[in-house]
Write a structure and sequence with these properties.
about 150 residues; alpha+beta; Aminopeptidase; 5-stranded mixed β-sheet; 5 strands; globular
């Protein structure tokens, strides 16, 4: 099983859209935004100004992706990354592929001078929480809110 972890490229838009659909609708059970909006987001990330996407590829088929957004931390007064997404098709969860994709994000953060990488996961996603703890992460004492 040869896996490649790499930056997303324009040729990945359709496959990445399918993966994002599985992530949003299949995994999180959220409504699907219009495909045009998803394509716009992917295109924005391909420009690497506001963030970046990485993909995991096996035999020319995408099996996972991760998204980093670039922002700042007032408390650190430095730039940081937010790992907004880390998703693999079920077969590759809890595998070396997941670790490689996570490490790609972590290494990008370090290599590009960001103070740290942060992220959130669902309180009921115990599998992901175990994975992150095994990767050396620790939870922090913040409560997340959202408003529309």
């Amino acid at each position: 099983m040869s896996i490649i972890i790499r930056n997303a490229e324009p040729k990945d838009i359709n496959s990445l859209t399918e993966l994002m659909h599985e992530y949003i609708v299949g995994f999180y059970r959220k409504p699907w935004p219009l495909a045009e909006k998803v394509h716009q987001l992917i295109q924005t990330l391909l420009e690497k100004q506001w963030g970046i996407q990485f993909v995991a590829e096996q035999d020319h088929k995408l099996v996972g992706f991760a998204t980093l957004y670039f922002t700042f931390s007032t408390m650190k007064s430095e730039k940081i990354t937010v790992m907004n997404d880390l998703f693999l098709i079920e077969k590759f969860r809890d595998s070396e592929v997941e670790s490689q994709l996570f490490l790609k994000c972590q290494n990008y953060t370090k290599e590009h001078g960001y103070a740290h990488m942060t992220w959130v996961t669902g309180s009921d996603n115990k599998r992901a929480q175990r994975f992150f703890e095994n990767m050396g992460a620790s939870s922090i004492d913040w409560v997340n809110y959202s408003i529309t």
